[in-house]
Amino acid sequence: MKHSALYVILLVLMTVGCKPKVPSELVQPDDLEDILYEYHLAQSMARNEHTLDASYNQTKYFLAVLEKHHVSEAVFDSSLVYYYTHAERLKDIYANVYERLANDAKKLGASVGDINRYSQYSETGDTANIWRDETAMLLIPHPTKNRFDFVIKADSTFKVGDSFMFQFVAEHIWQSGSKDAIVCIKTMYEKDSVLQSVNHVSMSGISQLRVPSNTTLNIKELRGFIYLPQGEDNNEVRRLMFINQIQLIRFHNKEIQVQHENDSTAIVKTDSLPRVDITRGAKQDTLRHNLGTGLRSKNAPFRRGGTTNRVVAGQNRVEKTE
Fold first, then answer.
1. In sequence order, which residues have a C-beta less than 8 Å from that of residue 39 and are 6 or more positions away?
2. How far is residue 302's CA from residue 300's CA, in Å, rounded to a whole number?
3. For residues 262 and 256, is the Cβ–Cβ distance under 8 A?
4. What are the C-alpha distances in Å from 12 to residues 3, 18, 99, 229, 272?
5. pLDDT per position as a tens digit, 231-284
6. Could you tell me which of 155, 168, 238, 311 has the fewest CB atoms within 10 Å of its CB?
7. 149-168 burial, b for 16+ CB within 10 Å, e for fewer?
8. Distance from C-alpha of 124 to C-alpha of 130, rounded to nearest angstrom
9. Could you report the per-residue pLDDT of 71-115, keeping only the tens digit for each?
10. Angle at 144 between CA 186 and CA 224, to 5 degrees
11. What SS3 string covers the chain?
């Protein structure tokens, strides 16, 4: 037992030891978290000033944050380049930053925003958050790190007339160039019908993409992506987008469902053949047909010219009786 416990301890120490250390000349993870936290507070203050110099103020506030932490702009940029190659670590740092910002908002009495109002709904209700993939990610405008793809397969909970809303919170760090991330969802319906919905994300905050309903066709799947273009300027330019609280909300439309079910029932009734009673009002077979096919019973009488005749079983003759 003691040997097992010792083995576990050694394994943990080896795992921790194998985690690469950030070079000492760069910003360390805890310090970077504090800088990013204060950076986003400063950016929010600059946006709320509503002046013509908002962009200038954002830059000024950012440099003030760096000066407070005794970090030069060059060192900060070099640190981000390093963290770009360790995206999971930067993603964890940003998750902590977002949690701190959300807690600050709650302390200031902020109400529950649009991004949270659907969290309480179950997966099978008329309104439901059906997102089951990761809810936070970091996009960097470098190949293989600047796009996130997803597929949602339809199941029995999907109904004709469903509409959707894809939403998330985006936070940017942007040195230069235009902020223009692209969000796209292709809705695949039966009969090879496709609907494409597109939106652009050019600022921090809640971003939403709505997918309207189709009143006649069943959904097969939804395919979507979030894409951060690489741009034509220097790859070392400070740019990234952190996405958090991803949700895909499905809305049932009961009126469309009822109408679709009624229309389907009417089509089935129209296409069905009516039952016909072929025995009612049918004429008896002729004598020639009865004798030739043997459809009548062996001793069944029949009449010809007022005389009753009878087929004698087992004999090739007909008896006549008056």
1. 62, 65, 173
2. 7
3. no
4. 14, 10, 27, 40, 70
5. 666 556 678 888 988 999 999 887 765 565 555 555 445 555 455 454 455 444
6. 155
7. ebebebeeebbbbbbbbbbb
8. 9
9. 999 999 899 889 888 888 888 998 899 888 888 877 776 555 555
10. 10
11. CHHHHHHHHHHHHHHHHHCCCCCCCCCCHHHHHHHHHHHHHHHHHHHHCCCCCHHHHHHHHHHHHHHHCCCCHHHHHHHHHHHHCCHHHHHHHHHHHHHHHHHHHHHCCCCCCCCCCCCCCCCCCCEEECCCCCCCEEECCCCCCCEEEEEEECCCCCCCCCEEEEEEEEEEEECCCCCCEEEEEEEEEHHHCEEEEEEEECCCEEEEEEECCCCCCCEEEEEEEEECCCCCCCCCCCEEEEEEEEEEEEECCHHHHHHHHHHHHHHHHHHCCCCCCCCCCCCCCCHHHHHHHCCCCCCCEEEECCEEEEECCCCCCEEEEC
Residue 178 has pLDDT above 50, yes or no: yes
Backbone angles phi, psi at 42, to 5 degrees: -65, -40
pLDDT in tens, 226-246: 999 876 665 566 788 889 889
CB-based burial label for 40 (10 Å; 0-12, 13-18, 19+): buried
CB 39 within 8 A of CB 173: yes
Residue 208 contacts residue 128 (beta carbons within 8 Å) = no
How much is the pLDDT for 184?
A: 97
Predicted pLDDT of residue 168: 92
With b meaning 16 or more CB within 10 Å and e meaning fewer, what string describes 76-103?
A: bebbbebbbeebebbbebbbebbebbbe
pLDDT of residue 58: 78
- pTM across the whole model: 0.66
Residue that has been written with the tokens 């030739």 in this structure? 292
